[in-house]
Please model this.
Amino acid sequence: GDGGAKAASGASSTGARRRGGRGGRSQARRNDEFDDDQERIDMSEAELAEQGEIVRGFLLDLLDAFGLDGEVVATPAEEGAVELDVTGDDLGLLIGPKGQTLQAVQELSRSILQRQLPGDTHARIRVDVGGYRQRRREALERFVRQIAEDVKTSGVQKALEPMSPPDR
Model:
């Protein structure tokens, strides 16, 4: 019975490797938060700031293309990451249902960075729009605590619906 599970997981990991192979080594692991801790990206503040500016420019152009007014702040973070916060009015279009558009914008941001700086070490890019990720994280934490309480009091196991990697 184990062979089937291996085949299924093998199929999905080759997809991730193929995507990562195009864009640079450091991005191949992006969906697994635990792996990020194993290999630290060693980048100077200046490199992080430069890469943050490239992505910031892309996001500002994206806002313009959609006719949206907004600001983008790039902040170098821990372990070779750059956080980009997009703020403004009516930014729901860039978030999408359950943050799917936001996830796509983040993927595009990574691709732009890799195209502009081919072969370099790339920062991990995290994009947030209107504080959405922070609010979603807090809502998920409340939800999970409630489920844990229910399981504790009832003694009955519960399965959660499938989640995207950032939500996990």
Summary: Strands lie at 70-76, 81-88, 124-129. The CA atoms of residues 74 and 141 lie 26 Å apart. Confidence is low (pLDDT under 50) at residues 4-38.
